[in-house]
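Work package 3, deliverable 3.1, input record:
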Amino acid sequence: MDFARVWNEALPLLLQGVLTTILISILSIIFGMVLGFVSCMMGLSKNFVLKWLSRIYVWLIRGTPMLVQAFIVYLSLPQVVQLFVPSFRIDSFTAGLVTLSLNAGAYLSEIFRGGIKAVDKGQIEAARSLGLSSARTMMKITLPQALRVAIPAMVNQFIITIKDTSIISVIGLAELVNRARTYVGSTYQFFATWVLVAAFYLVVISALMWVSQRFERSMTYDAEDGSGPGPGAKAAVLAGEYIRGE
Amino acid sequence: MSNKLKVAVALATAVAFAFGAVGCAASGTSAGTNDKTYVIYSDNAFAPFEYLDTATNKYVGVDMDLLAAIAKDQGFSYEVKNEGFDAAMGAVQAGQADGMIAGMTITDKRKETFDFSDGYFDDGQIMVVPADSSIASLDDLKGKIVAAKASTQGATYADENKDKYGYTTQIYEDSPTMYQAVENGSNAACFEDRSVIGWAIKQGDVKLKTVGDILNPGQYGFAVKKGSNPELIDMFNKGLANLKASGEYDKILAQYGY
């Protein structure tokens, strides 16, 4: 339980790991958002092929553990690709990023869908009957309100994505857990190292929660702290006035 | 006040009796044959020392067979848990396991936290590259990524020499993942125990080859937490000596191609 020793010896190693964890988390969340949005739109589309592509994607990702997906992307996929492109190589960061993004995307797709379904159908009908195109209705009426509903679940998914980076340690990505394991493997300082690793995750996730709370406040119409509507909420109100012709 | 004192005396007496009884029970067992079931942890993917025999769904290997033969020779009972190398080390340190046998090389550093038996197998690390690789020595690793398995001598060696040969390291949790990464070309080479990779190549499971000499020769040992279960180490050593004398040791090793 020698915290001072672990702090002195392992800190540079663990900080490098934290940086990798943060980098791959941010990139996965960004790519996951894009994937999730595209998949959600495909899923809601009237086009049969697009709809089923989205459903199959969500089904495959949600139906298999991420650990297995990481192994497939890093170990199995290259063998298939190398049959066609012998020089194909994939590093563990890329493989990890692909796995995490695909995962976040599938879950976010469902979260977005839930948010959109939560928007009152009457509003969409009203917008359409006022002559707004379906794309414009989606952008101006549905999405701003859907986003507001979906934020808590989205933040939850972001937190899960950050934690999921630890799974990528099995394919040798030198993120926080992998670094800690390397250090513990040669020093046997199990207790202090893992407590320190937990503290690092807490700090990173707390930072995300702080940012997302501020964002959520700006999006909420009736902010819980009584500070009134934020810019996002104002946009939603304006959209409503636009429909009503005010 | 006096009531409290009485209660305290009664409690103290009860505790003293309880301890006395436990003491008697403990001395009773140690006087006769040792009927304690030792919990031994081991790795779960370290062929041919411990690996899952898919036909029987049981863990087999040099370590498993040696342990069974030694336990039979010395007359102690045990239970093996194949939980992985890191888990085994953690369990021994935490006192959840009485000992571990996992192709573990005896080193001075490990001796700070473990007590080891006599060495039961000679081994060392060797460089492993894809079967069609042009890498022939450590000097060819400049700018490449070299794989190693966490908590192993190979990882220590890889880390100590990365500046000298100008490569970077990547750490895996188990051998199969590491081999596949090297086969796929994600990593240029890995350091692995000669015995293990030799066996894997011999089985035809991996398209890899070894290059160069054994990097740091060492011996495998059975380990307990430092200062605990000395009788287990004692029995292991005696049993091992008996197996060597009777020729059973050679027979077990021959089964796995040594």
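The interface with chain B takes residues 71, 74-75, 78-79, 82, 89-92, 169-172, 174, 178, 181-182, 184-186, 188, 190 of chain A (CB under 8 Å).
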